[in-house]
Fold this sequence. Notes:
The chain has helices at residues 50-70, 80-94, 104-114, 124-135, 137-140, 149-158, 174-183, 196-199, 206-216, 230-238, 278-288; strands at residues 9-10, 16-20, 36-40, 46-47, 144-145, 162-167, 192-195, 223-227, 243-247, 270-272. It is an alpha/beta fold and 289 residues long. It folds into 2 domains: 9-48 and 144-288, HAD superfamily/HAD-like (Rossmann fold), CATH 3.40.50.1000; 50-140. Helix 1 runs antiparallel to helix 4 (124-135), helix 2 (80-94) packs across helix 3 (104-114) and helix 3 (104-114) packs across helix 4 (124-135). The protein is elongated.
Amino acid sequence: MVASSIYSYRVPGGADTGRGDHRTGEINPADTMLKAIAFDLWETLITDTPDLSRRQERLRLTRMEEILRGRGHGAIADRIEHAYRALWSRCQDLYWSADVDIPCRRHIEHFLEELQLAPASFDEPVLAELEHAYAGAALEILPAVVAGAPQALSEIKSRGFGVGLISNTGRTPGSVLRAILDALGMSASIDVMVFSNEHGQCKPRPSIFEELRRGLGVRYDEMVFVGDNLYADVHGAQRCGMRAVHFQPPVRGTAVAPHIEHGLEIVPDARVTALADLLPALERLQDEA
């Protein structure tokens, strides 16, 4: 349980010192500069271990193969795994490397193209089946929760702060990630969720942070963003005018973005190695403001 607090103290007579009420310790975001905390998702709140990733992949491939066999495409079964991996490279080259994202259905179309099958030759129910098999594996084989994530979210939410989330989605789209967060007991603590496959652009693009800011109804200088990726999370947030906390967990899973040679010197406003240390770090940022 996170035990620290962020206070907004008032001195007798109503003058605001910006340090809070030392008598009650109550948070009132309306009296502070800091009104909302936003989070990255993968490797910040949830993670996939190598074993979980392998099981999710096997479930996707098995179900997609069954669907294609049932439609008379059994001859391509030995090429499905290659097409699945080629799909990832294709999305990286065409979209994600430019910080652009696409709907999940476009993944399925590219997957079929890698198998030298024309997407237009499949009717809508079959395309929907393939999309469900591809997108839903992580809901059946749930990711692991990063230590302290539910407690940190709940504590921040209970103190009256807005809580937001931005995720670059990869294979699992926002519709499924919402259900995953609900299944893991975290969705009730998050006010606004923005997913790249729905927005059309990825972090660190300013537009995806802007969608979150509008949803939370705060200014950038009233927000802090927390994430594990120095470029996408910290740089992306800071260039919009937010402060940013770099989360550096001792162990990371498989959902780590490819390294980008950006040539930037990125200095986070704070660093934590455990989410249990987040609120004390936020408190220090508030005191420095």
